[in-house]
Input
Amino acid sequence: MKKLLVVGAHSGDFVWRAAGTIAKTIEEGGTTLVIAMTYGERGESGELWKEDPKRSEESVKIIRRVQAQKAADIIGTPIQFLDWGDYPMLVTDERINQITSIIGDFEPDVILTHSEKDPFNPDHPLAFQTVQRARLLSSGAGVPSAFKNIAPPAWYSFEPHQPELSGFIPDTFIDISSVMDKKMAAMDCLGAQNYLKDYYAELAGRRANHARRISGKKEIKFAEALQSMMPRVVKSIF
Output
């Protein structure tokens, strides 16, 4: 049974960028876990603040948690909220250890998180750096009696909002055609960022076009793009 860990800086990131990949993993019998480092209460909840500028941050957190939980339930994945605070998200050694422990306990075969660069969002690259360090700590060489080591998980970045400005070069395309309805339903839950739904629906169609041209598989209608952060080791070229 394969295990997929998805780490997002904000509570909605996993829906926009990886809901299809998560749902596809579950469809094929895999196990998934989503980590939301923050609720995105400050920088990712514009619609909520427009509705009521006098809202408290705590009330926005509650709404964001409910929305993300509904989306996760539709997809069928467990989700864990860390509530680190966003814009800016601050990462301490204690928080790196927290992510390291999650990786060590879950022992994922694959980790998905943000891209290394994002000129429009200060939290996304920090999430990348945190996962990078935690992955190394959880799988690094050491004395077994000193700390637990796991097999190094495969590691991918999911697609940022503006890939051409974030150094994102997709090299892996996931066919999410069979689960696109779940992604659409999950995106419907995120009313705090409702304006993103059309963009990511259209993006799934464009990435499917790329996937069809690359593979010749004409049945692909929707896809998500990823970029591998590590070389893959295989038994054969075939």
